[in-house]
Amino acid sequence: MTLLEPTRAVDGSSIADVLDRAAAGERLGLDDADSLLGAEGADFERMLQIAGDMREAGLAASGRPGVITYSRKVFIPLTTLCRDRCHYCIFVDTPAQLLKLHKPTYMSAEQVLTVARQGAALGCKEALLTLGDRPEARWPEARSWLDEHGYSSTLDYVGAMARLITAETGLLAHLNPGVMTADELRMLRPSAPSMGMMLETTSRRLFEEPGQVHYGSPDKNPDLRLAVIADAGRERVPFTTGILVGIGETLRDRAESLIAIRAAHEQYGHVQEVIVQNFRAKPRTAMHDAPDASVLEYVAAVAVARLVMGPRMRVQVPPNLSDPVEFALLLRAGADDWGGVSPLTADHVNPERPWPHLADLTDLTAALGFELRERLTAHPEYVQDAETWIDPALHTAVSVLADTVTGLAVDQPTGGTRRSATRTPVDVAHNSCTPSGASIAAQPASGTARNARANRRSYATGRGGTAAKTAARTAAKTGARQLAEGAASNPLALDDAEWAQLLRATGADLEALTAIADDVRRYTVGEAVSLVVNRNLTSSGFRSAPTDEPGTFTLDDVAAVAADAWDLGATELCVQGLLDSTEDPRAYLDIGRAIRAATPAMHLHAYRPQDVWDLADRGGLGLDGALAALRGAGVDTVPGTGVKVLSERVRALVAPGDLEIDRWVDGITAAHRAGFRSTSVLFYGHVETAEERIAHLRRLRGIQDQTRGFTEFVPIPLTGIEYGVPLVTGRAAIDEHRAMVAVSRLMLSGSIPHIQIPWTRVGRDAAATLLQCGGDDLGGTLLDGRVLPEAGIEHGLELPVTDAARIAARLFRPFRQRTTDYREPSRR
Is the pTM of this model over 0.90? Predict the structure, then answer.
């Protein structure tokens, strides 16, 4: 939402004149920037050309022509309490909401390290610590927590956790804790190579006027935020800042904000990147009905940021807040950095906007003519001049991860937690409220010196609380609880027997297991409960000619089913099932083409490995040929169903008609390598053992290590919640499912991101329970539709969006409608 102004040149110059001066490298003023933000038509196109050329000149001067950068990170939301009341934010909670969510006031050291260690194993090098501004100034609960744990302030705790992360995992912290004083910046500098805070806007109207987005938020005072940016420069902190486009600011406000950032950088040289972020309206906020910033308006802001800031500034655009088809415009406009992208954690500030897969981002960037390279949280120029910009306590930690020639991130293999080479110079127990080098014993931050030292030391080593409390808690832990905590930090640390022990957990052990799994869910994929609007069509019912058989359909019916589903709001049509042996196998392709012709924008999720092999064998195409033909027929993703347990013993006993296990693995692996993503499943509760379930999960994880093709995992009870063969005699069916979901979340964490709850098998009430054991997705609506509803498997069962949203609301969690590949559905 922006208050647009007419396109004009404020100082009497034409926009063409301003662009001439920009092309000549002249320094643009406020009026120039103001006029360019409203450029249209040929002026807009020329502005993009000049901005892109300027970016290229800057990259060449920096020794990396054609390189677009990003940082591989984990997102750690240290607390969601905040004293501000921004009208567009869904990141923050109140203490009452935390209680309802069973969510801690602050993440514990154990929770922080769980996320950081998993991120390190996936090759991350940045830990982004984000939180609300000074929650203890508004909420007594925050003040009490800090006092109990021996911290003088939230920022004190931020520093302790940043040092702990680096000492234990080697990740470098980027701190984004909001408004800080010069003393606080100085205190935090030894904890992190870089920090940041969005300016957002210099508009005082948005801050002072009742009803505007920043009214009632003391930390959004633009003068205060500009002072923080200047103080960061004086303290020699590499700093990230930027503007938020579309929150009600005028074009003049936008221009003033960019000019103000440039002024600070020209004085101190510390602004390492300028983020130009587009507003995205969010549900449950005062601005939920406000329109998002238009694409061209946003792109103009990116281009003007480049022209104002010059060739050597890094201009960042968050890739998850734009559609990939818009990436070309953003790069044409002079952007050269995608910011932090996580292979593990959600964007907790914008949870409805998932990160792009890094492989996809690499390919998309390459398709636009650029090379994607990883950087550290501090940009190369600041890494290369570490004596000026990086605190000595962090020099070794930074050098371990930095390429000595470019200052970018060094390539490192993933697969294990890195231990920092700086464990000695990084004093993780150092009191973060004292000057660098001062001892805790000499200057405790709060409480008695003895308690302060004990508390800080225990948190710095990842234990938390006072030494006595920690010892008591550790002594009280059962073996299962310890196993679950170890699995949360490193899913690869447990052996099969230990995982099987967790699958059999009961009583207090089961409660601990599910709580730990749900914490892993919360701090990786986030709080949202998601659902895709879809309908099923069982291809086994296809007939080339009409028949009277129930559940059968023709090619004409396929088009009608697809059109009807689209009209009802579906974004996905799921098609699976072996064709009748009398039908031509090319009908698999005909069905796909008919759906694509009737509904060009429908996502076609079609054909299990068994179906693909049928096309490959009977159609004479071979596996690769069949997959290529399906792609040509319009298939987008494939179901990873058609298998119960990846065990020939189990298949022979319960599903001898299923595809052989090796052929299923070959089929799904080939599909992934052909560019298809898929679901994955496990049907449990029959003759399989706990060890066979674990072997199944391990094999899925192994496939994922090779292909990164699985989007989700669905643990499916074979015969429903009230039946089945329990692993533990006498254990309630719901507890069987709770253990299965929790173990799935822990064992697949960092590998397959989403755990889907099969509501059709367990029922809606049980689904709500399982969403609290590590689940984050409800699958699909399974619309029956008005055309041949009986032609879809599981017909007669529907979960309307409104009902799914009510399930999420019962859990006090946000609801998100998604696409098949977990993106945001386009607005029709």
Answer: no
